Amino acid sequence: MRLGKLIAPVLLVASLGFAYSLSFVAEGGASAFALVIGVVFGFVMQKSRFCFFCHIRDYIEDKNPRGVLALILALAIGLIGYTIVTASWIRVPTPSNLPPIIHVGPVSEVLFIAGVIFGFGMVLSKSCIAAHWYHLSEGAIGSVFALVGVAFGFLLGFNCWNALYGLRIADSPLIWLNAYFGHSIALVVQLIVLGVIAALIWRFAVKTTGEAAKPVVGFKELYDRVFAQSWRYYIGGAIVGTLSFLIVIQTKPLGVTATIASWARAIGAYYDLIPARLNGLDGFAGCGSLPANFWLNSDATLLLGLVLGSFASSLGAGDFKPQKPTLKESALNFIGGVLLGFGAMIALGCTIGTLISGISAGALSGWVFAFGMILAIWIGLKLKLA
The domain containing residue 356 runs over which residues? Predict the structure, then answer.
């Protein structure tokens, strides 16, 4: 653990140095910024145990509200930040004038079903795609099977896309709530909805008292508070919500599936495993589109930063402990990963891109995906599928 404490800050500094060097590459400014955001995102996720499935499971099974309230806090902060940013871009929003980069997806029963499929994938693999990346940095070998499954799920989704697009998605509306109600009213209404949900969660929760904060005295104690000790859930929620809108100032919205989606698509196209043409896919914001620069792009550097940041956090806390899964756990991780990948492909993103970035931006698609996902998690836990 002592070696990990030494390596952790060095790894963070090296990551920032790499980001600085990227800023001198042609069109590398956005990638450098995404790398920095990714490092902070990964560090915070691991340190505060930011995990959609874990937080929702804790509430459903134990009535522990802290994690879910942290998720709601992240959405509330993201909504406020996104509204400020998008209002500076488009003073008077209209349905025909959507900001080109925000994650506003087509709303239909297909999206809801994709959320359900994604939710069952979370139950089987015990995590979402983003959390699998930071679990990997802790030595969770089972997450490798899940992420491989995600790639296969994307290939399956690409093969189903044209049929679903022609059947329903092509005619589905892109509903940006700001365009229908205005920036202010859309913000207030969604904050009220989040407030009501938070109040209901708190009303039916079993109240728990956290440990008292320890005073910081000297460098060693400060280091331990940053690297060695876990952070409160609300700290993670607040920082993730802030990152969700800060990143759009310089580059694309927060999301972790675009890289694995584009790699799966490129490999699938090369080996003729997917249709040569994916109708309408590249017209939507979200995962699935092939970037102009396959390696040096903001999606890839964001994911790289997430892994580096979470690995530094894991080392500093002594959480890096390789864990060999059983055959059953490996199988469930892979099957769950396939469902995660398929659901994310059809929904054009996961809990980070479609849910956090979508809801924060005022996209109805984020709410629909969230409802389907939460319903599936509730059913899956009640049926004890994993």
Answer: 2-382
Burial 8-38 (b: 16+ CB within 10 A, else e): beebbeebbebbeebeeeeebebbbbbbbbb
Q: What distances in angstroms separate CA 220 from CA 107, 135, 223, 229, 318, one per listed residue?
A: 51, 26, 5, 12, 16
Number of helical H runs and strand E runs in the chain: 16, 0
pTM: 0.93
Domain count, the chain: 1
Task: Tell me the C-alpha distance between 248 and 266, whole Å.
Answer: 26
| Cα–Cα distance measured from residue 292 to residue 279, given in angstroms and rounded to the nearest whole number | 18
Average pLDDT per consecutive 10 residues, the chain (386 residues; last block may be shorter): 74 90 79 93 94 96 95 97 95 88 94 98 96 92 96 97 96 96 97 97 78 51 69 94 93 89 92 94 79 74 94 89 93 98 96 95 97 98 88
DSSP string, 307-334: HHHHHHHHHHHT----BPPPHHHHHHHH
Amino acid (1-letter code) at residue 49: R
**Which single residue is written with the structure tokens 């910024």?**
33
Of 135, 137, 134, 150, which Cα lies nearest the Cα of 41?
134
Nearest of 252, 61, 312 to residue 243 by alpha carbon: 252
Q: Give 63's contacts (C-beta < 8 A, 6+ positions apart).
A: 204, 205, 206
CA geometry: angle at 312 spanning 308 and 315, to 5°? 135
Distance CA 256, CA 367 (A): 19
String of DSSP letters for 89-136: H-SS-BTTB--TTS--PBPSHHHHHHHHHHHHHHHHHTS-HHHHHHHH
Q: What pLDDT does 170 receive?
A: 95
Report pLDDT for 153: 97
Confidence at residue 20, expressed as pLDDT on a 0 to 100 scale = 86
